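Support request, please re-run this one:
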Amino acid sequence: MTEFKGIEVSRGTVQPEWIDYNGHMNVAYYVLAFDRAVDEFWEQLGITSEYVEAARGSTFAVENHVTWQRELNQSDPYLVTTQILAYDEKRIHQFQRMYHVEQKFLAATAEWMNLHVDLGSRKVTAWPEFVLAKLEYHSAQQAGMPLPPEVGQRMTVKDPLYAATDADV
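Re-run finished. Output below.
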C-alpha cells in the first residue's frame, strides 16, 4: 500500500469509453486525467476561467513526460496529486501522481513544465503576485519531500539490438 504523496488536486472514475482493446485505461485518457488535474491545481492557485478572461493570462504546457506503473480498469476510482518541484517568476515544474483510491497503488505519473503566458502577446510573462504567494505556500507545505524517482528519467533500452546515434540523424 502506498501513501498518497503531494497535494490532492483531482478525483475521478475511469469511464467506459476510456477502455482500450487491451481491456484497461488507454494512454490518452491518463494524459486527459492529468491535464484536468493541472487545471484543478491552477484553480487552487487562482488561475480560474475568470482570471484568464479578465487578465488575459493563462498557462501553456511546454513539456510532459508520463510513466505508467499499474493498470487502471473501468470504474476504478483514482486521485491525482501534485508536487511542486521548482518554480520561478514565469514557469513551474510539477510532478503528478495518479493513485487507485481504494487499493492505494501508484498507477501513473506525469511530469510537467508549464509557462505563464500573456494571451494578447502570446509571450511568456510573470506570474501575478497572488499566484506566486500560493506557490510559495504550497511549496512550504512540501518542504523536505524527496524528488520522485521518475523525475527527469531518460528512456533507454538496456541492451539494444539497434540504437540510433547522432550520425544516423
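The beta strands are 7-13, 57-68, 77-87, 91-100, 106-118, 123-124. The chain is about 25% helix and 35% strand.
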